[in-house]
């Protein structure tokens, strides 16, 4: 091998190695990219975890309330397999709401039936997925982890409205919450950052 | 470079442990691949034995899941990929007129990582809780929260495999870009060199993403992160996106070198130049680029938004165009040639026919609404075995028969070669064709037991698998005989430089077997 | 793009194709269950399954035509252009016009396939205006069905006994495709399925409906169906979900609207009876009988029918185990599960009477003979945090 080709080989190899590292980074970059993609398209019915604000339609140039075309909104409560909690959807498990109408307050109910103090995380999901971006949560128990002592129970608040931009062809929206046990995660986060267990995780 | 490099090989075990010679390393890769093929094949036999009739007879469901997982991992990462790297090592320097690979020491490492990686992977079977049982696609959370403890070793093994592939790919690209003989322009390179060149770039593009995926798994399992756990704000579907961003190009990583081998063989035995060389190169590049844009067609049933379904349906259908171009080109090469049908040609023709059957079923799956019925059934199993077995594996056989006379200087026994071909051809079709039917009739994949109406075709499939498996012993016999002839120095069956009548290319200007260092002085290119 | 327009086109195109495969016509004749030697996809019993079948056949025949043409040329060439027949090789190596032509042709064929496929896809994604909504939750290794707004919810477990699976008894007609409680839906009604999972990924598939949707923990997917004909339709989980992935079948009983209402009424009555049990005391034999059944469907897949468990993975329940230890702990494990292991929290899955029965059973079967009787009210008290009496 001549010196010239040897230099060429070395240059090629280092460039390719740099490309490899870049692609490794890209693998991790897929995570935030995917988050953005999900929010834009409503993939998997993922909802935005930041509180929305409701502004009365009259005060802005936004479309007005579509009073005569209500949409059916259902509320579901699902326990993941390791959750020994009683987890209940609101009494009125179904509402007809006009897109753009004033926010609605509801409460879920949770009761820790086990004999240990636990921390749970509710994960929201909207079906159909593309309705997710039009269901705006102003306040939601899913924004934080929920700690419940053994035997304790609590009301979990939810405040939301349906955006007036909701497409016409969506007639039913199902908002589901799945409850997961994050006691261990919360404990390890607490020891790591010395924060109270109710603090929101990553 | 030190002077002793220009002598022959060292002797004994150290020759193989410390070798930096491209032919020695190529041989190591090929033998390793063969061992892995028999190990993965034994697992397949066990799977087919359990599925011979309904009911659980031989293995427990959990062990069955370990077998399907290991069979997939070993065949993909242990057999097909190393086999093609073996071909690359042997052939690339000879085909572009170079003395050796560009990075010989790196070459040694990238091979010797493999036996370590697979020792770790296979040893997980004997660990408490058993080996990986979550399928070769290892979807979270089955592979994270619900995995056996050995999953950590599995992740480590995958990291090592990825490293080996990446080092190999860097070496191949560096060799092709820098060591081509004067006059060997890019558009004069043989198709096999081109397909490997493109494959190597694909490897560098996606293997690091796989490494990223398993690293995220590792962090989820041991460091409390939540990439793939819904509870902590992660998403199990994200795993599938990341995995298939690697996984679909991986399919082409496996098949492109086989395209290259077949593109060398068909012109040789048609005694006619390859038809549409330029379009062949562009089609290969197009396939590679498009393969990074189709991944979610493996996920039509995860509940993607409609636009996502449609986007991936269209891109997947589009990939059929360059693939079709290749098939048309091969047939046009045969058209008005002067064909003979030795073992390499038979395997290549079977490749064209059977691979396109897999291509057709692939096209059917691209149709998203129909895929709702096909997805995760035996129809899928039939499809990917058609592209991988008569595709990649037949490509390996074709390549071995084609270049074995060059590598050893001895012609193999053609009668045994023909026998091997026909037994393999019948066995593979008997195994995989009936799987289309049970899949369409509703049999899910990855189940150790099935409903009674699937019994007949499964029995046929199992019989086919035993035929297919045992007939590979013929291949071993052929190989042993050639190597024995070579070792004993018997002159019967010795071949000259051009082992085949219609053969063209730089490697055929070297003696058979070629000297230890291929082209010490660059050849002149017409 | 209208539904009707596209359906006519698909039908017209597939009418051109003469069914070569014998069972393709069989399936179209309306046999619901997969048959021996069945070669093709079922025609199914929903409008969606029909269009999917038509689309499948359309593409199949396009592939057949292309294959016959391409292989025809190749085999002709192999027969004629061979050296043994004295063929002299031509030396051409490209033909730009031909290459452009076949690339364009291939693209055209693809567009012809993509158009009807898109229409079907849009229709499949339109789950609006459903009359019945059912939440389907995948568990390792069973399905839970919850009728929204009806207060009806139950688990559906495989009903094939181990003896049949392990060859100790002849295999029954619906081997591996039978459940204890099938999903019941009325015909002629748009039913929407909300599909999710409680642990790992699963996938809910009924071939005759052409409905297959992944069940993903934390996310709720949608699918819908409209069944034309009464009958029992069978499917299986299609996403690898662990050890017993092959043993979580799906059975849907499609009935008339009246029968469906009757069935719902029965379920309501059953739920009322279950609530009444809270105030009753059951005797040992009652509890043992019920407990054995509950154990077989919920516990035996891991702890085995003999209570022997699987050393290293699933603890044994006979002799000196949790089942003979303190009652409160035993209740705790069954009701709340054990975090970090495969032991689920059955308190959220089973009613008080079933829990009481199964715990009684475990404490008295296999020679455990603790003599402990657990009543439904005990379970209810424990759940309320009142402790064990």
Structure in words:
The complex is a heterotrimer of chains A (202), B (526) and C (389). Chain A is 25% helix and 32% strand. In chain A, 39% of the residues are buried. By secondary structure, chain A is α+β, with helices and mostly antiparallel strands. Chain A has helices at 3-41, 183-193; strands at 71-79, 85-88, 94-97, 104-112, 118-127, 135-140, 146-148, 153-162, 172-181. With 526 residues, chain B is an all-alpha fold. Chain B has a single domain (10-124, 131-221, 244-509), classed as Cytochrome c oxidase-like, subunit I domain (Cytochrome C Oxidase, Chain A, Up-down Bundle), CATH 1.20.210.10. Chain B has helices at 13-18, 22-50, 61-96, 104-123, 151-178, 191-222, 236-270, 277-290, 306-318, 320-334, 343-366, 368-374, 378-408, 414-441, 455-470, 472-488. In chain B, helix 7 runs parallel beside helix 10, helix 8 (277-290) runs antiparallel to helix 10 and helix 14 packs antiparallel against helix 15. Chain B starts with 12 loop residues before the first helix and ends in a 38-residue tail after the last helix. Chain C has three domains: 3-124, Helix Hairpins; 132-273, Cupredoxins -  blue copper proteins (Immunoglobulin-like, Sandwich); 280-384, Cytochrome c-like domain (Cytochrome Bc1 Complex, Chain D, domain 2). Chain C is 41% helix and 16% strand. In chain C, a hairpin with a 2-residue loop joins strand 1 (132-139) and strand 2 (142-147). In chain C, helix 3 (47-80) packs antiparallel against helix 4 (96-124). Chain C is elongated. The relative contact order of chain C is 0.09. Mean pLDDT of chain C is 85; it is low at 1-32. Chains B and C meet through helix 3, helix 7, helix 8, helix 9 and helix 10 of B and helix 3, helix 4, strand 7 and strand 9 of C.
Q: If you consult CATH, what is the topology of the largest domain in chain C? A: Immunoglobulin-like
Amount of helix of chain A: 10-25%
Briefly, what CATH class of the largest domain in chain C?
Mainly Beta
The CATH homologous superfamily of the largest domain in chain A is termed Ctag/Cox11
Order of helices and strands of chain A: HEEEEEEEEEH
Helix and strand arrangement:
The complex is a heterotrimer of chains A (202), B (526) and C (389).
Chain A: H1 3-41, E1 71-79, E2 85-88, E3 94-97, E4 104-112, E5 118-127, E6 135-140, E7 146-148, E8 153-162, E9 172-181, H2 183-193
Chain B: H1 13-18, H2 22-50, H3 61-96, H4 104-123, H5 151-178, H6 191-222, H7 236-270, H8 277-290, H9 306-318, H10 320-334, H11 343-366, H12 368-374, H13 378-408, H14 414-441, H15 455-470, H16 472-488
Helix pairs in contact in B: 2-3, 2-4, 2-15, 3-4, 3-5, 3-7, 3-13, 4-5, 5-6, 6-7, 6-8, 7-10, 7-11, 7-13, 8-10, 10-11, 11-13, 11-14, 13-14, 14-15, 14-16
Chain C: H1 3-15, H2 22-28, H3 47-80, H4 96-124, E1 132-139, E2 142-147, E3 152-156, H5 162-165, E4 183-186, E5 190-197, E6 202-206, E7 211-215, E8 221-226, E9 231-237, E10 249-255, H6 257-276, H7 284-298, H8 300-303, H9 327-336, H10 352-364, H11 376-384
Parallel strand pairs in C: 1-5, 4-10
Antiparallel strand pairs in C: 1-2, 2-3, 5-8, 6-7, 6-9, 9-10
Helix pairs in contact in C: 1-3, 1-4, 3-4, 7-10, 10-11
């Amino acid at each position: 091998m001549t010196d010239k080709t040897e230099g060429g080989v070395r240059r090629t190899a280092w460039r390719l190695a740099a490309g490899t590292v870049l692609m490794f980074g890209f693998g991790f970059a897929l995570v935030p990219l995917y988050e953005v993609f999900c929010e834009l398209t409503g993939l998997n019915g993922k909802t935005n975890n930041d509180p929305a604000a409701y502004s009365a339609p009259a005060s802005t140039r936004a479309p007005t309330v579509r009073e005569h075309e209500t949409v059916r909104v259902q509320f579901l409560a699902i326990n993941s397999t390791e959750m020994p909690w009683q987890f209940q959807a609101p009494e009125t498990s179904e509402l007809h709401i006009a897109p753009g109408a004033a926010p609605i307050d509801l409460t879920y109910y949770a009761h820790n039936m086990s004999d240990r103090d636990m921390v749970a995380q509710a994960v929201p999901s909207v079906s159909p997925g593309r309705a997710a971006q039009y269901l705006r949560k102003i306040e939601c128990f899913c924004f934080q982890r929920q700690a419940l002592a053994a035997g304790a129970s609590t009301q979990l608040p939810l405040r939301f409205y349906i955006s007036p931009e909701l497409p016409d062809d969506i007639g039913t929206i199902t908002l589901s919450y799945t409850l997961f046990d994050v006691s261990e995660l919360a404990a390890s986060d607490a020891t790591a950052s010395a924060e109270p267990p109710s603090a929101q995780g990553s | 470079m030190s002077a002793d490099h220009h002598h022959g090989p060292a002797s004994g075990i150290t020759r193989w442990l410390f070798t930096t010679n491209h032919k020695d390393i190529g041989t190591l890769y090929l033998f390793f691949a063969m061992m892995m093929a028999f190990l993965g094949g034994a697992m397949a036999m066990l799977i087919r034995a359990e599925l011979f009739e309904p009911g659980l007879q031989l293995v427990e469901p959990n062990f069955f899941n370990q077998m399907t997982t290991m069979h997939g991992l070993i065949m993909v990462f242990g057999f097909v990929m190393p086999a093609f790297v073996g071909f690359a090592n042997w052939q690339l320097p000879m085909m572009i007129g170079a003395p050796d690979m560009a990075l010989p020491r790196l070459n040694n490492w990238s091979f010797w990582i493999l036996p370590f990686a697979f020792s770790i992977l296979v040893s997980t079977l004997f660990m408490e809780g058993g080996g990986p049982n979550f399928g070769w696609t290892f979807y979270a959370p089955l592979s994270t929260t619900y995995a056996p403890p050995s999953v950590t070793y599995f992740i480590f093994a995958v990291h090592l495999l990825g490293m080996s592939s990446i080092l190999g790919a860097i070496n191949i690209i560096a060799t092709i870009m820098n060591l081509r003989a004067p006059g060997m322009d890019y558009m004069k390179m043989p198709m096999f060199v081109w397909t490997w060149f493109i494959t190597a770039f694909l490897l560098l593009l996606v293997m690091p993403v796989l490494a990223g995926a398993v690293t995220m798994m590792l962090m989820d399992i041991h460091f409390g992160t939540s990439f793939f756990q819904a509870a902590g704000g992660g998403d199990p579907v994200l795993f599938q996106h990341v995995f298939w961003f690697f996984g679909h190009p991986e399919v082409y990583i496996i098949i492109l070198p086989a395209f290259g081998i077949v593109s060398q063989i068909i012109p040789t035995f048609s005694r006619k130049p390859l038809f549409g060389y330029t379009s062949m190169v562009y089609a290969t590049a197009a396939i590679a680029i498009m393969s990074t844009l189709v991944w979610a067609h493996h996920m039509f049933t995860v509940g993607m938004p409609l636009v996502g379904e449609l986007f991936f349906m269209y891109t997947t259908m589009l990939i059929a165009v360059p693939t079709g171009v290749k098939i048309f080109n091969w047939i046009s090469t045969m058209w008005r040639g002067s064909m003979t049908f030795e073992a390499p040609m038979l395997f290549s023709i079977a490749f064209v026919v059977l691979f396109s059957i897999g291509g057709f079923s692939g096209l059917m799956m691209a149709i998203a609404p129909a895929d709702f019925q096909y997805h995760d059934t035996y129809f899928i199993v039939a499809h990917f075995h058609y592209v991988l077995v008569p595709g990649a594996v037949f490509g390996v056989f074709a390549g071995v028969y084609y270049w074995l006379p060059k590598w050893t200087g001895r012609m193999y026994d053609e009668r045994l070669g023909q026998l091997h071909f026909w037994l393999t051809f019948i066995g593979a079709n008997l195994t995989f064709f009936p799987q289309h039917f049970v899949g369409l009739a509703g049999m899910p994949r990855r189940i150790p037991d099935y409903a009674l109406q699937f019994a007949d075709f499964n029995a046929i499939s199992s019989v086919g698998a035993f035929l297919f498996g045992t007939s590979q012993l013929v291949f071993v016999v052929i190989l042993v005989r050639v190597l024995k002839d070579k070792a004993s120095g018997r002159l019967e069956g010795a071949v000259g430089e051009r082992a085949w009548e219609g053969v063209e290319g730089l490697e055929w200007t070297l003696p058979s077997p070629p000297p230890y260092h291929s082209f010490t002085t660059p050849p002149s290119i017409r | 793009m209208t539904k009707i327009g596209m359906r006519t086109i698909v039908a017209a195109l597939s009418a051109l194709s003469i069914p070569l495969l014998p069972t393709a016509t069989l399936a179209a004749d309306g046999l619901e269950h997969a048959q021996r030697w069945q070669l093709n996809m079922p025609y199914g019993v929903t409008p969606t399954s029909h269009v999917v079948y038509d689309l499948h056949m359309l593409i199949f025949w396009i592939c057949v035509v292309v294959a016959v043409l391409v292989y025809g040329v190749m085999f002709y060439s192999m027969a004629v252009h061979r050296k043994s027949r004295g063929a002299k090789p031509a030396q051409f190596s490209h033909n730009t016009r031909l290459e452009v032509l076949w690339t364009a042709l291939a693209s055209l064929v693809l567009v012809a396939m993509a158009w009807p496929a898109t229409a079907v896809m849009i229709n499949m994604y339109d789950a609006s205006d459903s009359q019945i909504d059912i939440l389907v939750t995948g568990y390792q290794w069973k399905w839970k069905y919850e009728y929204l707004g009806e207060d009806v919810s139950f688990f559906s477990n495989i009903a094939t006994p181990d003896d049949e699976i392990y060859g100790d008894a002849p295999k029954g007609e619906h081997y591996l495709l039978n459940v204890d409680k099938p999903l019941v839906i009325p015909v002629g009604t748009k039913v929407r399925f909300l599909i999710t999972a409680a642990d790992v990924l699963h996938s809910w598939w009924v071939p005759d409906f052409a409905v297959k949707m992944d069940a993903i923990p934390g996310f709720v997917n949608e699918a819908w169906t409209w069944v034309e004909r009464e009958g029992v339709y069978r499917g299986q989980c299609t996403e690898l979900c662990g050890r017993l992935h092959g043993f979580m079948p799906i059975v849907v009983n499609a009935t008339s609207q009246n029968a469906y209402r009757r069935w719902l009424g029965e379920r309501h009555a059953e739920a009322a009876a279950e609530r009444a049990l809270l105030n009753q005391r059951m005797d040992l034999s009652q509890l043992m009988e019920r407990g054995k059944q509950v154990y077989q469907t919920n516990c035996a897949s891991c702890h085995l029918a003999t209570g022997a468990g699987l050393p290293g993975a699933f603890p044994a329940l006979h002799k000196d185990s949790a089942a003979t230890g303190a009652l409160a702990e035993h209740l705790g494990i069954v009701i709340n599960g054990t975090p970090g292991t495969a032991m689920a929290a059955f308190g959220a899955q089973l009613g008080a009477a079933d829990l009481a029965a199964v715990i009684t059973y475990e404490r008295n079967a296999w020679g455990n003979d603790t003599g402990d009787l657990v009543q439904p009210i005990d379970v209810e008290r424990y759940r309320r945090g009142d402790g064990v009496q």
